[in-house]
Amino acid sequence: MAVFGNGIIVNKTFEFALRTIKLCKYLKQSQKDYAISSQLVRSGTSIGANVREAVYAQSVNDFICKLTIAIKEANETHYWLELAYGAEWLTKQEFDSIIQDCDEILKLLTSTINTTKKKMK
Fold this sequence. Notes:
Blueprint: H1 8-30, H2 35-55, H3 60-86, H4 92-120
Helix pairs in contact: 1-2, 1-4, 2-3, 3-4
């Protein structure tokens, strides 16, 4: 079911995972935070992992399921980023930059799921 193989969502979620890893490394070094940054790195990297699983889904329903999990992980990541910003661990510029990427991924995933569901009908 390789619908988007090495496409835009795969690339964006991979790049986002790398940004998340680097951000968490920064948070651990500068803020001495381990709890929030470990949650953030887990959810931020899980988005792309679920997208990669969707690439080789066994069925259309499995494809949708994997992308739905990716949306849930992206939403959780959004929460952790908001929390880090609210705790003043990120500047407005840092927050705006990474949250924009997270929002874009959420929109792409939602659009892909909706398009796939329409094609099923």
